[in-house]
Write a structure and sequence with these properties.
- By secondary structure, the chain is mostly beta strands.
- The protein has one domain: Exo-inulinase, domain 1 (Jelly Rolls, Sandwich), CATH 2.60.120.
- 0% of the residues lie in helices and 57% in strands.
- The protein has no helices and 15 strands.
- It has an eight-stranded antiparallel β-sheet with strand order 1-2-5-14-7-8-9-10, with no helix packed on it. It has a seven-stranded antiparallel β-sheet with strand order 3-4-15-6-11-12-13, with no helix packed on it.
C-alpha cells in the first residue's frame, strides 16, 4: 500500500542542479511494507533541504520527485548519496528515471540503487509489481566506514541504443534500450528504501 505527500524540495531543469532550488513543489510517495518479516520503522518520513541537497529520514520507503521535471532522449542523470545511518539489514537507495503515474496506482519507473553491503541493483516497477533486471556486488560501491557512513556517486547515462549505470565513475552494468528497459523518457527522481537516513546532493540531469 502506498501513500504520497507533497513536501518542500528542489527542482532540476535539464542542465541545472536540482538541489540548488530548495524543496518547493516536490512530492513524496511512501511505499509501506506489507511484509511481517520486514516491517517499516516507527515515525513519519522526513524530507528537508540541507547543504547542497536534501536530507531524508525514511522509516518507510519513498520515491521523491517534482512533477513536470523530466528527461527524454539522450541524457545523464546523477546524484551523490551519503548514507548517514545504515539500516539494520540490506536496503537500497538511488536514482529513478523513465517514470510516469507516480501519484497513482499505475506508477511505472526504472531505478538504479546501491546498498550498504556493496551491491547495486537495477529494477523496473509497474504498478505494485517489481522486476529485477540486474544485481551484483561491486568494489565500486563504497560501504560504511567506522562512522557508519558511506558516499556514492550514482549516474545513469541513457544513449540512443544502450543505458549505462555508473557508481563513483565506474560503469557497473549496461542494458539495451529494449524490452524491460526500453522506456527511459519520463519524470526523474530518487528512491530511498525504508529504515535508512540519507543525504542526497547535486541531483542533476544533463
Amino acid at each position: 500500500m502506498s501513500r504520497f505527500v507533497s513536501v518542500a524540495l528542489t527542482v532540476l531543469l535539464a542542465v541545472a542542479p536540482l538541489a540548488a532550488q530548495g524543496t518547493a513543489g516536490w512530492k513524496v510517495r511512501a511505499d509501506r511494507s506489507t511484509m511481517a518479516s520486514d516491517p517499516d520503522g516507527a515515525g513519519d518520513i522526513k524530507f528537508m533541504a540541507m547543504g547542497a541537497g536534501f536530507h531524508t529520514i525514511n522509516p518507510q520507503a519513498a520515491v521523491y520527485w517534482k512533477p513536470g521535471q523530466s528527461a527524454t532522449g539522450t541524457f545523464s542523470l546523477k546524484a551523490q548519496f551519503t548514507l548517514l545511518k545504515p539500516s539494520d539489514h540490506t536496503n537500497y537507495y538511488g536514482l529513478v528515471f523513465g517514470a510516469s503515474g507516480l501519484d497513482g496506482p499505475q506508477q511505472t519507473y526504472l531505478y538504479f540503487m546501491v546498498a550498504q553491503d556493496g551491491t547495486w541493483i537495477v529494477k523496473r516497477r509497474s504498478g505494485a509489481a517489481t522486476e529485477d533486471i540486474g544485481k551484483m556486488s561491486s568494489s565500486a560501491v563504497r560501504t560504511p566506514g567506522a562512522n557508519g557512513q558511506s558516499t556514492n556517486l550514482l549516474e545513469v547515462r541513457v544513449m540512443p541504443t544502450t543505458i549505462e549505470y555508473s557508481v563513483n565513475g565506474t560503469t557497473v552494468f549496461t542494458t539495451p534500450k529494449t524490452g524491460n528497459t526500453a522506456t527511459t523518457d519520463g519524470e526523474v527522481g530518487f528512491r530511498i528504501n525504508h529504515r535508512l537516513e540519507v543525504q542526497v546532493d547535486n541531483f542533476e540531469v544533463s
